[in-house]
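Go through this one:
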Amino acid sequence: MPRVRLARLFWIGAAALLGVAALVSITAVVRGDFSETDGKILAVLGTALLAGGVALAGLALVERGELVPLGWLTVAGSVGLFAVLAVETLREWDETELTMSCYLLLGVLLLVVTARLLGSPTAGWTFWLAVGLLVLGTIGAELAIYGEPSSDTWAKPLATIWILGGLSWFLVPVVSRLTRRAPDDRVVARGPGRHAVELLEGELLIVRRG
């Protein structure tokens, strides 16, 4: 399915979710009471919007043919994480370790995939650096969520890793821009007349008046 069509479907779905969220909010205002059920519905809709964005980013990666396994893993992961979060939200309003863990994984998947989409092959080292730091930070955060360490000494190195991971993520498009090579143009034909043109992989035919 073309990327434009995928993006259009996503934005249509996003508009529908926002419409439902507005309807729930208006109903709560008219009723004069914002119930716990209303809050749960809004939380599920917001999670669906986030998970849909992550899935769309994964599909864009698949469509580009870059790190296809990561793209499909992102799509499957976003669907699975949304299912878990929806069940947890509707069943238990309080934040649990599982809920925080799922939101963390969704955020990390989004950061990793968008880093690849924003980057170029010339900035591969910054992408893998960002991935390594984000994975390391995720492992540390998961241990903190489930382990509940009594000491605050773990917080400083973990925060440092996340800061460096965020910096690396921002560096990916910057380095890509600075190291991008200009395309190599080649003349394949000159007018007037008809010409049979054979293009190489990745080439784009542009007709230009000389």
